[in-house]
TrEMBL record:
Function, in words: Catalyzes the methylthiolation of an aspartic acid residue of ribosomal protein uS12.
GO cellular component: ribosome
Domain Radical SAM core: 192-437
Gene name of this polypeptide: rimO
Cofactor: [4Fe-4S] cluster
Residues that hold [4Fe-4S] cluster 2 according to the record: 206, 210, 213
EC number in record: 2.8.4.4
Organism phylogeny: Bacteria, Pseudomonadati, Pseudomonadota, Gammaproteobacteria, Moraxellales
GO molecular function terms attached to this record: protein methylthiotransferase activity
PROSITE patterns: MTTASE_N, MTTASE_RADICAL, RADICAL_SAM, TRAM
Residues covered by the MTTase N-terminal domain: 60-170
Keyword terms, alphabetized: 4Fe-4S, Cytoplasm, Iron, Iron-sulfur, Metal-binding, Ribonucleoprotein, Ribosomal protein, S-adenosyl-L-methionine, Transferase
Name this protein carries in UniProt: Ribosomal protein uS12 methylthiotransferase RimO
Positions in coiled-coil regions: none
Length: 509
């Protein structure tokens, strides 16, 4: 599958000629230097005692390349946290690393190739490489192409990776002196995101068997964390300064099904390991909470009510955000049946209408696949008509491509590449027009936004509203800021202009 994106500045460029902004994937790739820089900002920065020792010189360093989705990024964060606790440092480049770990993605063919290329680069530039992640499931492919790799593990194999690292680069002896850089890692662990937002992974794996997907073979069936574990991490992240939690899994709305909604205790109160109960508890934390990978089941209606209630109470600065990431994938009944999509029998337009009635400001993002085997022009027209009625806020799209191990590979009537691309263009042009119209409705409204970056040269704060997930949706660009504006800060702004994908506002102190 391929995806095209467009990063707008101001609207003197026609996006329809160069691509589209809303992304179809959630890639959270981190290069070796990005991993080191983000890891360093996550640690407590206190100098070690000047006792004349040369411990710093002897400290082994591990380079880290992380590829793929937010769930893989969380795996990388956990591995780096454990290695840091063992006394390792994260290297800033290949030359400075005693060994390099490459966390791979194996979901689509382009990601597989990217992962194989990253492994090759690490071997060429360093020589000592451990491979982990989804592509690790196909160890033979990795070793055939790169026989020099030291070890290969699958996804979320934290202990195996740490064991392999310590085998090839022995961990340092524990210092007799207190080392706050290790001992003061907070309970949230090391994060590879900016300090003001973090991913909260609530489960692993998936029970569905969609024909185009190989996630169950890579990550197994659904395994939910207990609710007390999830909430303890959420509180730790809040205490560490996180302003926004992005809840991720492969099927968030199925959370707890495998545990039969096991009862646990958190802060002295009984609470079920269940989607609704988790959302209710997270909404009370007083920070933004954003839900990803939610399927359109009827029980989601009750969670939308939590969104409506919590945002009224918080004034937009905390609670369960009125935002749902729903992987619809298609709308044609025949295509959905061929995909074996869960909830394909649901009347999704009716469900959307119910959600909008409960919470009028709710924002829906989704991804779609065009050119799936057997997709006819009638199927595609059905999808376009559905989108016209659904009027989704944030839309990304893939053109279908085969994935090793997917059962869809054996389906008849493949769609020619030229037709796939033409359908992609038609679909995204419609989605872009809907986005432009919906954002125009925001002009004149007052919104609470979270500052992601500051462009000091242009005196602009690059922000997001409740409607924008980081790195995949749009931005709110706030002009004429002053020195009081900081990254991770909430601002209340009035929208002056809108483009196809972004909003523009002026700062008022």
């Amino acid at each position: 599958m391929t995806v095209q994106t467009f990063n707008p500045k101001h609207s003197n460029v026609n996006p329809s000629k160069v691509g589209y902004h809303h992304k179809a994937n959630h890639n959270q790739n981190r290069t070796i230097d990005q991993s080191a820089n983000l890891q360093n900002t996550a640690l407590v920065q206190i100098d070690k005692p000047n006792d004349g020792s040369d411990d710093a010189i002897k400290t082994p360093k591990v380079g880290f390349v992380s590829l793929g989705c937010p769930k893989a990024l969380v795996d990388s964060e956990r591995i780096i946290t454990e290695l840091t606790r063992e006394g390792y440092q994260v290297a800033k480049d290949y030359d400075g690393a005693d060994l390099v770990v490459v966390n791979t993605c194996g979901f689509i063919e382009s990601a597989v190739q990217e992962s194989l290329d990253a492994i090759g680069e690490a071997i060429t530039k360093n020589g000592k490489v451990i491979v982990t992640g989804c592509l690790g499931k196909d160890a033979q492919k990795i070793r055939t192409m790169h026989p020099a790799v030291l070890a290969v593990t699958g996804a979320h194999a934290y202990d195996e990776v740490v064991k392999a690292v310590t085998h090839h680069v022995p961990k340092p002896a524990k210092s007799k002196t207190y080392d706050p850089k290790i001992d003061l890692i907070n309970d949230a662990g090391v994060k590879l995101t900016p300090a003001h937002y973090a991913y909260l992974k609530i489960s692993e794996g998936c029970n569905h068997r969609c024909t185009f997907c190989i996630i169950p073979s890579l990550r197994g069936n659904l395994v939910s964390r207990t609710i007390d574990s999830v909430m303890n991490e959420a509180v730790a992240l809040k205490k560490a300064g996180v302003k926004e939690l992005l809840v991720i899994s492969q099927d968030t709305s199925a959370y707890g099904v495998d545990l039969k909604y096991k009862m646990a205790f958190w802060q002295g109160e009984p609470i079920k390991t269940k989607f609704f109960d988790m959302c209710q508890a997270l909404a009370r934390l007083g920070i933004w909470v954003r839900l990803h990978y939610v399927y359109p089941y009827p029980h989601v209606d009750n969670v939308v009510q939590i969104m409506a209630d919590s945002m009224k109470i918080s004034g937009g600065r905390g609670g369960l955000l009125p935002y749902l990431d729903i992987p619809f994938q298609h709308a044609s009944p025949s295509v959905l049946k061929a995909m074996k999509r869960p909830a394909m029998s649901e009347n999704t337009l009716e469900r959307l209408a119910i959600w909008r009635q409960i919470c009028p400001n709710i924002v829906i993002r989704s991804t779609f696949v065009v050119g799936f085997p057997g997709e006819t022009e009638e199927d595609f027209e059905y999808l376009l008509n559905w989108l016209k009625q659904a009027r989704l806020d944030r839309v990304g799209c893939f053109t279908y491509s085969q994935i090793d191990g997917a059962t869809a590979n054996d389906l008849p009537n493949p769609v020619p590449e030229s037709i796939k691309q033409a359908r992609y263009e038609r679909f995204m042009a419609l989605a872009q027009q809907i986005s432009k119209e919906k954002l125009q409705e925001k002009v004149g409204q007052t919104l609470v936004v979270l500052v992601d970056e500051i462009d000091f040269d242009e005196n602009i704060a690059i922000c997001r509203s409740y409607a924008d997930a980081p790195e995949i949706d749009g931005h709110v660009y706030v002009d004429d800021i002053d020195e009081t504006v900081k990254v991770g800060q909430f601002l209340t702004v009035t929208i002056d202009e809108a483009s196809e994908y972004d909003l523009f506002a002026s700062f008022v102190a």
